[in-house]
Mitochondrial disaggregase
Amino acid sequence: MASLREPAAWPSGAEQRCCRAGDPGGHQSGAGSCSPGAGLPALIAALAYCYLQDRLSKEDALLEAARINNVSEINRLLQEGADVNTRHKLGWTALMVAAISRNSSVVKALLTANADPNLGDDFSSVYEIAKEKGLHSLEGANPLQKNEMGHTPLDYAREGEVMNLLRAAEAKFQEEQRRREVEERRRFPLEQRLREHIIGQENAIATVGAAIRRKENGWYDEEHPLVFLFLGSSGIGKTELAKQTAKYIHKDIKKGFIRLDMSEFQERHEVAKFIGSPPGYVGHEEGGQLTKKLRQCPNAVVLFDEVDKAHPDVLTIMLQLFDEGRLTDGKGKTIDCKDAIFIMTSNVASEEIAEHALQLRQEAMEMSKKRIAENLDDVQMTDKITISKKFKEKVIRPILKAHFRRDEFLGRINEIVYFLPFCHSELIQLVNKELSFWAKKAKARHNITLLWDREVMDVLADGYNLHYGARSIKHEVERRVVNQLAAAYEQDLLPRGCTLRITVEDSDKQLLKTTEGTEKSKAPTLRLEIVEKDSKARKLEIQAPLNPENITYFL
């Protein structure tokens, strides 16, 4: 026989009506009455339902309905006078239960009934919850938690049962933590995380993601650190990819990410700043910039920015670092950093990479046009191109060898990652990202809503400079949009709380239809206009500031 606390089956609507009428046997005349021949399990379920309804108060029933996503029951209880903001004896409200259970329909119903979303949790003590749930008050505690001295509970335990208990708890906790991390990586891969912060560079993201995945899952050489060389022009995402990789691996990016500008190590005597001064020299007690930070976090992500500018003696030290996974500082102490990830960036061969990528993109575009003309279905995507192996061996490898002067240094690099110029669709994303940044600033600082037309993004994307990358888009937005916003604000043309739209001058819209490859006579003009409450637009007449180039000086 089923337990009264856990009915075998939930009663039907007719059975519920029978119980409420006071006839548990179902002998009720008229339409809708229960049949005398109803099965015993259904009768037991009906009795259990009546028992629970009598036992539970309206407030407890409201909390239970919020948990099981029963909107109709919630509406009925609220109509009967149940308090929508009632609390469980352990502190939570029905709205909290629905939100944690992800029951959006219940959340909507409770908010409609004026549930207060600003109520605090007001949870009772851990001992009351432990007693209620039948758990020990320390159940689930992290045995790997460190104090200010960096010690875990096991470090303070003596021999005996307590030490064995803590060892077992540490092993169990590490296994659970490893299982959760694997599940998180499976649901939310590294490549997906990187694409949220980096525009374009699909090949670079895929290469880095594959190497990190090998390391995370134990398919790597633990005797050598992971080494990358990022090649490409300035402002194209090399440093940002290194930062986001460090943020993924280490939650605390301040310790887990070490960045060194290698232009500071161009002279031989500056090698001491790298690993520390030898005994008897100034700065011996301070240590080097790299060794000091690696000692704090041996598995950090280390970025050697513009490594091509470093002195050859610094490269010799880096060769030992990449080969043996350890580094000896000026004091003679050895730092083991085989678990670290080293990323070098360089602008070497950036011109050749950019020209080759543009050539590949142009060939892909012509191939797409040809396939479209021939009505072929397998039209090639022009945005996705790959650097050929022949180009890497015949062009890039000789340039790198001539610059770094040693094959053993290049041989220690696990992956050479190529960063390509942005295509048009990626430039549109960059422009939209930059305009969204200034729209948030305008809303936060001046309560101004900033909108823009699709043509505006095309105009600003034309300001892209191959040599400066995304920075050229940033500067173009500042010159052509932010300058107008600042001038209009200074001339008191922007009322607080207004809505602004950035548009292209009507007379210049024809310039946007110019085919690619033909030189435009002039750049289209961008204008600001205020959107009135009746949706009508009014253009702003911004007075041009005084131009120093037009001033005539008399001596």
Remarks:
- The domain at 221-421 is CATH 3.40.50.300 (Rossmann fold).
- Confidence is low (pLDDT under 50) at residues 1-38, 376-382, 551-555.
- The chain is about 45% helix and 10% strand.
- Residues 481 and 526 are 8 Å apart (CA to CA).
